[in-house]
């Protein structure tokens, strides 16, 4: 008789170690789910932090009738605190653009400042002095200003390093509360 046939009935009735086999098979699945939840949670928190930051900076810029270079520098220094724990300078850039429309002209970027980090990124609305490319749902009247605040963040996955790095962007549109903010005063 074949030796395997002799052992099989005995193994079939022996239940010792079956739980260990099930655990050994399920642990990788549970670890994958756990690390996936950590990655997704971190990604969602980053998006929330970016949205809070872009709105907070836009709110700070639009509070006064005028703004100067020193105030803009101070406002950009708040970016790492609002973005914490995602506050690496090399991965972040905040950009504020003042877009105004003069009579019978296209909306133009009157001034544009960036800070809060050293990431290299370009505004999606143009550069200072250029005609602005605004979304279709943003309408402007003559002598009206819109402040566009953009934040860029280079995202590297925490756990799943095989996923590609990507640059995330959030934008906020605010109208100045008082005045037009069509220029930045010197210090």
UniProtKB/TrEMBL annotation:
What Pfam families is this protein classified in?
TadE (PF07811)
Keywords, comma-separated and alphabetical: Membrane, Transmembrane, Transmembrane helix
- Spans traversing the lipid bilayer: 20-46
- List each copy of the TadE-like domain by range: 17-54
What is the protein named? TadE/TadG family type IV pilus assembly protein
The organism's taxonomic lineage, starting at the top: Bacteria, Pseudomonadati, Pseudomonadota, Alphaproteobacteria, Kordiimonadales
């Amino acid at each position: 008789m074949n030796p395997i046939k002799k052992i099989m009935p005995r193994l079939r009735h022996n239940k010792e170690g079956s739980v260990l086999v099930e655990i050994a098979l399920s642990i990788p699945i549970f670890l994958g789910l756990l690390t996936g939840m950590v990655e997704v949670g971190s990604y969602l928190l980053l998006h929330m932090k970016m949205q809070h930051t872009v709105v907070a900076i836009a709110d700070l810029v639009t509070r006064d009738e005028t703004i100067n270079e020193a105030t803009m520098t101070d406002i950009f220094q708040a970016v790492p605190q609002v973005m914490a724990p995602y506050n690496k300078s090399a991965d972040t850039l905040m950009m504020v653009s003042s877009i105004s429309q003069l009579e019978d002209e296209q909306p133009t970027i009157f001034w544009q400042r960036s800070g809060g980090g050293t990431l290299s990124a370009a505004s999606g609305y143009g550069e200072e002095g250029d005609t602005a490319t605004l979304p279709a749902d943003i309408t402007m009247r003559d002598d009206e200003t819109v402040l566009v605040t953009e934040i860029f963040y280079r995202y590297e996955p925490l756990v799943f390093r095989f996923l590609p790095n990507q640059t995330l962007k959030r934008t906020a549109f605010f109208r100045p509360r008082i005045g037009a903010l069509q220029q930045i005063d010197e210090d």
